[in-house]
């Protein structure tokens, strides 16, 4: 069994201040938080985010969402195996534990860091938590992007000369018995095979590192050519000719399609600014209704679209399903908790939409 890391000072303080407990129960909950964070993937991150932000959309999922299994496994795990833990009676505690798990998770899982920021939606969702969860996720994204896009150190590509761990036994040298020598040859075969396996594993590692670097270089090259060309493939027109309400989503989508490794480069904000996505405030209704209906349907085709973590994609999905510019707002507001006229700077809407796209479609 893996050793549980020492309880973080932050968690100790958060839990003690909220529940006046510094004993066995807190230790149990810490174990649960660590276990969840060590095993969580993107689905569990979605459930944790819904719990932490306490949104209208249930953490166990709506009828067309596949979150129930993850939720049912998460609750007993995050409690530390406490058979008496009732999520209905301990809703506040569950919220804090989910947030604490996310604090750990955003450091290593890009999807978790991305959706905490998209769920916050420019601080329009402000959960009652003892930590700035969205701020922690923002800083984690900067760190993750730097690590993912770091240049390969040449020393990582060097392979040590293989060694065959074998020597003839003294007994075989003395007896010259054929049976003894068969044992020696079999041992030599096994030692040689093991050495070759190590060489192949090392070569495969080098190929993987080089492939990842080539992929990142290609990502950078495509983005640079796109910036220099100044032309949108999505709308088939120059950046400067695109309607200002259409720019945030379409240009963010183009950058998303060129991104090969999540969470993308740290320069996304600068690139969006360079292509003319500005600081002017636009409402969600403005940008969602501005794009072509067919485009709205096309870009929102994912089973992961969520009113909590991908609210802009969810708005596009609702508009496309209802086929109307006027009918989607009520349902969207009911599940997101936002008014459809909630407004953010255009560049922030673009950046959030870009992050939503990465969560839905791009691997780390």
Task: Provide a brief overview of the structure.
This protein has 364 residues and is an all-alpha fold. The protein has 16 helices and four strands.
Descriptive account of the structure:
By secondary structure, the protein is mostly helical. The chain folds into three domains: 140 residues, no CATH class; 74 residues, no CATH class; 126 residues, no CATH class. The chain has 16 helices and four strands. A two-stranded antiparallel sheet has the order 1-2. The protein has a two-stranded antiparallel sheet with strand order 3-4. α3 crosses α5 and α11 packs across α16. The two termini are 28 Å apart.
Secondary structure elements and pairings:
Blueprint: H1 9-19, H2 24-39, H3 42-53, H4 68-78, H5 91-105, H6 110-120, H7 133-148, H8 170-175, H9 178-229, E1 231-232, E2 237-238, H10 247-258, H11 268-274, E3 281-283, H12 284-290, H13 293-299, H14 311-322, H15 329-336, E4 343-345, H16 346-361
Helix pairs in contact: 2-4, 2-5, 3-5, 3-6, 6-7, 6-16, 10-16, 11-16, 12-14, 13-14, 14-15
Low-pLDDT ranges: none
Count of distinct strands: 4
Indicate the proportion of strand residues: under 5%
Count of alpha and pi helical runs: 16
Secondary structure: helix percent: 55-70%
> What spatial form do the alpha-carbon principal axes imply?
globular
- Biggest β-sheet: count, sense, barrel? 2 strands, antiparallel
Order of helices and strands: HHHHHHHHHEEHHEHHHHEH
- Summing up helix and strand content along with how strands pair, one would put the structural category as mainly alpha
Terminal Cα span: 28 Å
